[in-house]
Amino acid sequence: MSMRQDPMVAAAELIVLLESACKNPKDFLSYDDHCNDISLESLSSSLVCTVGEISTWPSASNVIPGQVTFTVDLRAIDDMGREAVIYELSNQMYKICERRSVSCIIDHKHDANAVVCDSELSSQLKSAAGDIQDETPALMSGAGHDAMAMSHLTKVGMLFVQCRGGLSHSLAEHVLDEDVCAAGLAILAFLETQLYS
User: Fold this and answer.
1) Cα(80)–Cα(13) distance, rounded to whole angstroms?
2) How far is it, in rounded angstroms, from Cα 122 to Cα 140?
3) Are strands 73-75 and 48-50 parallel, antiparallel or unpaired?
4) What angle do CA 132, 166, 83 make, to 5 degrees?
5) What is the DSSP letter of 35?
6) By C-alpha distance, which of 150, 148, 154, 156 is closest to 122?
7) How wide is the angle at C-alpha 51 spanned by C-alphas 28 and 112, nearest 5°?
8) Helices (H), the chain
9) Which pairs with CB-CB distance under 8 Å and at least 24 residues apart come from 23-27?
10) What is the pLDDT of residues 117-160, one digit of tens each?
11) CA torsion sign, 92 to 95 to 100 to 102?
12) Is Transmembrane helix included in the keywords of this UniProt record (predicted)?
């Protein structure tokens, strides 16, 4: 066991590091050119990290893998903060791999900047909610939406329909008919203001 250079164990340590960094970014990052106090504050409430895929080669129950590959999806409301996490995470991953005597290749497959919804448009959507607008919170969406692709062409904004228990994009997702109806009426009210303004 003492002679092993096991990439599976290294991958497990890297994944736990990722979880820890994303749960506690203030403990993970230092104040420097890559991160400032504003970035740290926004990261604390918006940073989400997911390892959704892992594969090994060769994949046999009694063989130390020669290669382990896993994906990392990292999202935040603030680009500077997200980049700071990627920078620090990459540095620490290389150190762990070196300590475990395994090679490490980090390949950035996709990079999408955060998109901020238009404040005027968001305000109009909130106003269109009518009687319930005081109960309407402003939310960050961690998911990719068409708004990201359209933001360079036009103003973007989103209206979310509440889901039972806050679960969305899940088989357990459930919305009440009256909430769908309320959102639809808010959209219609918003469209009416746009048509007559």
Assistant:
1) 26
2) 12
3) antiparallel
4) 105
5) B
6) 156
7) 80
8) 7-23, 25-28, 37-46, 79-99, 119-128, 146-150, 177-195
9) 25/81, 25/85
10) 888 888 888 877 766 656 677 777 777 778 888 888 998 888 88
11) positive
12) no
